[in-house]
Design a protein that fits this description.
Immunoglobulin-like, mainly beta, single chain, four-stranded mixed β-sheet, 42% strand
Length: 689
Amino acid sequence: AQLRYSVAEDREPGSSVGDLAKDLGVEVRSLATRNLRLVSEGEQRHFQVDLAAGVLLLDSRLDREALCGQSPTCSLHLQLVLENPLQLHRVEVDVLDVNDNAPQFPKPEVVLEITEVANPGTRLPLEVAEDPDMGSNSISTYELSPSKHFTLSINVRGDGVKMPEIVLEKPLDREKVAVHHLTLTALDGGNPVKSGTAKVTIHVLDANDNPPVCDPPISKVYLEENVPVGTLVTKLNVTDLDEGPNGDVEYSFKISNNSPGKFIKLFSLDPRTGEIRTKAPLDYEESSAYEIAVRARDKGSPAMEGHCHLRVELIDINDNSPEIVLTSLSSPVQEDATPGTVIALIGVKDSDSGDNGQVRLQIAKELPFKLVSSFKEHFSLVTNGPLDREKASGYNITVRAVDSGSPQRATQKTFYLRIADVNDNAPNFSSPFDTAHVQENSLPGTSVFSLSASDPDEGSNAKLTYSILDNGMQDVPISTYFRIDQDNGTVYTLRALDYEQDKVFQVPVEVKDAGSPALSSTAVVHVFVLDENDNAPTIVYPSVPKGSAFHQTIPPLAEPGYLVTKIVAVDADSGHNAWLSYQLQETAEALPFQVERRSGEIRVAQALRESEDPHRLVVEVRDNGTPSLSTSVVIVISPEENSVQDFAKSLELPESSPKDPNLTLYLIISLVSISLVSCVMFALVAARC
């Protein structure tokens, strides 16, 4: 917002200037919490804010004449800054003039000379009185004390200044009156009226009766501010009707308190030719116009003089580059800031005037920001789209200010805006499924697998912690089998694993960041237990107690190839570790029997003798593991008469024998294990595809 107040220059300190809270539409009690600050654009502080009442107070007595000099308007510019949200308001306070100064002449007594041959209508210029007040409080008119010979004439100069002149009404006679004493009074237009006086003494002289005359008496010249030193401004046109020394004119600058004489440092005057030239660089921004008073005096006796008034108005040239002022910057800014969030407050100034002082601000179009004009020469930099710290952690923002002059002048200012991280990215595993293998019977603490996750956030939002979830798929919680290092994601065993009990584990792992709120993701590690040859073969038929022998009878005249019996064995291991082979242990004498290596069938190898003694066979069953494990059974074969082999019964014996109830269970376990492993493998292949 932009507020405007006015205050008279004679107000006491502490006086109220305006109700800020009411005019801004802000509650008084929120001013302190929003950290209301008053920023003056000048070097001196004239105002203060009463946060309890929400009003703008006068901090010191104002002197309009000291603040603004002879400027027709006098304004003080302030800036109000509110936070949460950040706002900038402009306050303009007009200082109203009060008639607190009386007119005053440069000198209390003025001495003038006039020749007695002066014709009626001759004019005697007088010093202009000064009144620092402006407008109606400035000098309104002049009055001259009554006189038979002189009257007062008032002319208005180009800048509006009233110039008093004494005009001769009747011819003078020096022999009758040699000196005339008058009183000149300057009156202002204030209420009540104030005045100042000066004594005017006029000496009547003989001789030189024609003063130099400037044609025109008041003139105006336009000059560009960047002209070279030594440029001719003008040549005064002055004439004197007298001849000889009385008509020989010399020129000089006329300085008064009303014309402080700054122009003397900038302009030179040739005393003989009346040429006025520049002698120093001119700056429109320092002063846009100069009033030059020139005295033209002849060399008569007494000398007479005329006065020329020249107003030099400068034409502004685009010789000042814009100035960028970064009033406030909010850095860092959260990456989830909504579009329209104010990032910075930027002011711009250009000392030139007109189009040369009209400034435009620009930033690169590809940036997610835009400039919004708050009010004259003040802009807000706001977000114009979503921010993503993971794509850009900060921006170098270059603000370019270009004026409308010809040629254009530009300035740029670069500042860095940092983007603060928000926990908007969940941790991510490289794959939602992984496989690992571990040997059964491995020692507790064996490393199984290392998972790795990444999080594009930073700081605590990217600090990851790993943990194992219990999914209830095993009878015993998965956390009793495995543990995970919460920092690096390495999975370890907690106890030795048994392939025959559990062939595969599904280990769900969760990774969670330390953000607020925390984000997480999961992955499943399929841990396959590798079989180890840790189980010896078990003979399920014939089933005999340990240390005993199995007795089998055959006919005495059994022919070669006769099936004596069949050894049935199983191995709890799998794969090569469960491949079994059968063989007879070597003896001192050759036996008439042989055993099939793969089937375990014992058959007659050669014809038996009629009176054959019983034969003792030791059958060894060995698996294919490394190292190989084995077991053995002792079979005593006795030839007996009337012994008949029941082949059907022999073949069905392993399944129906009441002594071998575990055979079916072992076969079922093997079938289920193979099926389970196959299903898991098919599931993994499907997931990867």
